[in-house]
Each structure stands twice: as C-alpha cells, then as structure tokens.
Hints:
Distance between the termini: 49 Å
Strand content: 5-15%
Radius of gyration: 25 Å
Shape: globular
Number of domains: 3
CATH topology of the largest domain: Rossmann fold
Helix content: 40-55%
Number of strands: 10
Number of helices: 23
Strand order of the largest sheet: 1-10-7-4-2-3
CATH architecture of the largest domain: 3-Layer(aba) Sandwich
CATH superfamily of the largest domain: NagB/RpiA/CoA transferase-like
Low-confidence stretches: none
Amino acid sequence: xxxxxxxxxxxxxxxxxxxxxxxxxxxxxxxxxxxxxxxxxxxxxxxxxxxxxxxxxxxxxxxxxxxxxxxxxxxxxxxxxxxxxxxxxxxxxxxxxxxxxxxxxxxxxxxxxxxxxxxxxxxxxxxxxxxxxxxxxxxxxxxxxxxxxxxxxxxxxxxxxxxxxxxxxxxxxxxxxxxxxxxxxxxxxxxxxxxxxxxxxxxxxxxxxxxxxxxxxxxxxxxxxxxxxxxxxxxxxxxxxxxxxxxxxxxxxxxxxxxxxxxxxxxxxxxxxxxxxxxxxxxxxxxxxxxxxxxxxxxxxxxxxxxxxxxxxxxxxxxxxxxxxxxxxxxxxxxxxxxxxxxxxxxxxxxxxxxxxxxxxxxxxxxxxxxxxxxxxxxxxxxxxxxxxxxxxxxxxxxxxxxxxxxxxxxxxxxxxxxxxxxxxxxxxxxxxxxxxxxxxxxxxxxxxxxxxxxxxxxxxx
Length: 462
C-alpha cells in the first residue's frame, strides 16, 4: 500500500505496532499497573455513578453556556492584573506569544506538561525563533530528548521501559547504563532546578479555568508546575476554550475524579490555584501572568449538538487505557495530539475530517470508553455520529459508497441473497473482499444453505 494519505499511513503504522511483541508487552504492563491503581483510587467513592453524573451535568451546562462563561472568566481574571489573550488558531497563538517573549527580551523557557502546547507545536515554533524551551515533567523531558511526541495524555513515555530509558540517559548524558529510575530522577531533578532558577518565562497548561474567581487550576505530581509558575518573572498558561468550570467549589469534585481516573490517586500531590500575577505583599509568583485561550477549530465541534459533549473531557486518559484498539496500536499510530477514543472523536474537527475521519472508524464500538469516562461522555456513540457526518460531508470513498449500496440492496431484497449457488458467492467474496479482510485472516465461507432456507425446511415453510 502506498503512503498517499493520512489514513494509509495510519494503517501501516497501526499494523506494525499491533504485531510488535515488545511494544505490546510494554504497553500491556504499563496499563495493567494503571488499572490496578485506578481500581484502588475509585474505592474512595461510595457512589461513583453519582459523582460522574454531577460532573457531567456541570461540564455540559458550562459548555452549553460557553460564551458567557468565557466572558465572565476574563472579567474576573483581569480584575487581579492578569491578561487574557484570545487565539483563533495555532498561528494566532504563536504570534501573540512571541510578541510577549520578545517584548520581555526572554530567552529561556521552562514548561510543565500541557497537551494544548503539543497541539500547537509550541516547542518547535519557539525553537525556530531562537528560544530555549525545556520540558520539566519527567516523562515529557524524556520524550523531548528522544525527539518524539507524547504517547499518552497522562503518561507521555508509556511506550518505553526502564531499560530503554536508562539507555537514553546513557547516550545523552553519559549516565551509567545500569542506572535505576531513582538515580535518573535524581539526576534530572538537579538539572532542572538550575533551569527553573535561570528561566525567564514559565509556561503551563490549565487543567481547569475557574470562572467565578478568574483562576487557573493546575494539578500535578512532580512539583514542576509549581516551580514553572513561581520562579520565572512571567507565567503564560495556554489552554483550550473548553477547560472552564463554574466555581472554585467544583474542584472538590473534579480534582479527585481526575486523579482517580488518571493515576489512581485520591488526589494528586500538587494542586495549585493561580489567580493572577504576584500581588502587593506576596513574596513569590510571577510579575506578569497571561492566559492564552485557544479555539483551534473547537468552535466547529461546539456547533454539533451531539459531538459537542466531547468538549467536557477532563483529559484523564481513562478511555485510552480501556480501549482495545489503543492497547494494541499505541498512541503514536494516531498521528494526532489526542489519541484513543477521545482523540478519534475530536481530531477530525481539530485537524479536518477529510484527513482524519479514519480515526472514527478505528474502534470496536465496544463501549468501554463510555463506561470508564468520569464525565459520562458517550464516546462510542459520538464515533458513530462522526462516521455519519463524514459520509454526509462527501468524504466517503467511491468504493465505500458502492459497497454500501450493494449491501443495502441485498439486505432489502431477500431474493438477491438467495440467488446463485454458494460456490459462486464464495468466489465473488474472495475476489472482492480478501484484501480488505486482511492478510492474517481467512475470508469467511458461506454454507450451501442459508439460515433462512434451513429455517423454512425445518418448519416446512413455503
């Protein structure tokens, strides 16, 4: 198969990863560890279903009133000296961020984990403009060393085992090849501390934007997010338009739900609420704070009465860990920032249906993603809506249309199914569908008598 389209490349990479035993062994082990942890984390709830329903109601209502909530957030955030920057797309966001950095004569940037910055290729754009950008989350730091993209929403380096990571640090920093995870972590901690102290700008994402107090909520386990905010003179938080929650009082629901489904903790180690730059009488914090709020085609998703529910996602990664497709092909095969079921729903909108509609077909529709979602997004049904929209928008191939036309005609006309002998039918099926069925599976064989005919013979029906 020639690598002509994004879908073609997806099929090639997915097949390669699915039959890579070492890759599957690593993913199976890492996800199994998460499954055990998440099972323990969920036990803190006496009624998980009620908590999920409450969270879903809050997020759905917030998304349905998104315009007003965004305006209110800006008003409350700017009241304490913060500045909100509205960005239509990647180019707009990068242009405005560069203006801030150039005005401040900034050169060195430390960055905590953020999927939105991955979405806009933040590091690549800034490095091309002469800035030093350093990932400070340990997993993201390793991914950056390898020149890769994050493999997983929560665990960027899930596809690597400890032996491979030791080899990376041996090659990059001449650490002993037998270095343990603890020794590597100690080395990175020392390296990063110097970077935090000398950084001009700290960049973070935002797990939640709190409307009523105008603040950014960050949750993390390493303390690098706190230091990215505290040491540099300028803090830039980059986030999507959908990250809003109405009140600071909602955090007692959302923070534990996110941690329980993401890492299996009751609550993550470091939880921060940043409501603007350093105020008079405060000893630490940035002198300037900006929140860059990006659309990047989220408005296209918002237009859809069904798929807009995907904007309620709190980026816990639970649907990835539960998805049988993701567990076989891994995160990089998707070739998007957001992989797994949630990525299959939102990526066609963020990056274009014409090139990414195939992701909505990369699913068994088993419903596991919907089952584990902490905000009750009906993900497997949204995938079906995406498929519908892809066809209605004219993105289905001619061969697909013809196949479905023939199938529909046959299903609506019993005599067409019964017409011809089973040998002729089997020959036709082999010729038409053997390639689509795959090289590792035998094409099913039709029996001499259909179920319909057997039924009639058994009960003497004419």
